[in-house]
Each structure stands twice: as C-alpha cells, then as structure tokens.
Design brief:
- Keywords: Membrane, Transmembrane, Transmembrane helix.
- By secondary structure, the chain is mostly helical.
- The chain has two domains: 33 residues, no CATH class; 27 residues.
- The protein has two helices and no strands.
- The protein is rod-shaped.
- The termini are far apart.
C-alpha cells in the first residue's frame, strides 16, 4: 500500500505530505514495510509477467 491516497485521521491532510506527527509516523511505517514490488502498479506487474512468459517461451523454442 502506498501513502499517496491515504488521508490522516488526525489532521485530515494527505499522509504523503506528512503535516503532523501522526502522518510522519504512518508514512515512515509504510515506507519500511514496502518490498521490491511495492511501488509497481498492477499494470507494470502484468507487463513484467508477460515479459517473463515471453522469455520463457523464447528460451524453450531455442532449446528445442
């Protein structure tokens, strides 16, 4: 999950702006939880999967 769409319950501002201590703490916690694929959109993940399948098919055709 990214903090770009989250709204702080304490100050009613976007968490990504970090206006209050609660926003800053939440933003820091979310950034620590992010993995290597956390910043990718679903469309980018789908494109990565399609590319991986294409490479696998190409490798199978070259081997056989």
């Amino acid at each position: 999950m990214t903090c770009d769409r989250l709204v702080c319950a304490n100050c009613a501002a976007p968490v990504s702006e970090g206006r209050c201590p609660v926003c800053r703490a939440s933003r820091e916690r979310l950034q620590q939880q992010e993995g290597i694929f956390a910043g990718l959109t679903p469309a980018a993940l789908l494109a990565l999967l399609v590319a991986l399948v294409a490479v696998a098919v190409l490798a199978r055709n070259l081997a056989g």
